[in-house]
User: What shape does this take?
Amino acid sequence: MDPAAASRPGEAGGYRVNGGETPFGAYLIPTRPCEENTPRAANEKIVADLAHELGFSVPPVLLHRRAGVLRGEETRCCLSLVMYPEQYEWGLIFGITGMPPPIPQIIRTSMTRYSETLALDLWIGQTDRNNANSVILGVDPANQADTAFLFHDHVLALNHGNRWAGAERDRIEMVPLPQIFRDAISKPRLREGAVRVAELPDETISDIVSRIPDDYMTMAHREIVLAGLIGRKPGLLDFVKRNF
Assistant: This one.
């Protein structure tokens, strides 16, 4: 399988780029224009920084202003680091039932290690996890023990569409998941992830959200995102206990 298959653009558009300081390059997104209530690059940056503080498996993200673009394309972009020499979209493993029996079990066991990341998805209101390219399996052929599932594609989370502006802001809802990941979830790991979110200081969340530039996310939108993240924390662990 060609690892370049993992670079197909998603809803936001984008492509893979290379640079001297990034041995495996990065994904640049978005190329599609962003409406004010869908700040794609800002969402990716906020979630990546939150995940870093929490120790969840989300690649680092840098904001990037794209110059010399074609008319009608987005300039307010971000770069999501490619972490491994080979990366494969997890859509490739949706159909693992046709593989020899040991392989599906190995994949499920590996996925179980990332159960706590679902706590992040629930907290940020992820809506786009059940697609073929929102999670990537990273592989290092020189060290086959070094593999990881990397969760990305958070452009339709947080206050996407201004959905956190109303009374439903604090309501936690189930994230649409591929069945293979749902079957692999470890309840103790997921609950531990929810505890980590609950214990993340509000000041840390505020610092992460407030440093987004105004042209990437308006101040009014940032205030809603911040209130939503802080307001949703208390109900997360209870939701996990009731549903898993």
Observations:
- Residues 3-243 form one domain.
- The chain is about 35% helix and 15% strand.
- The first helix runs from residue 40 to 54.
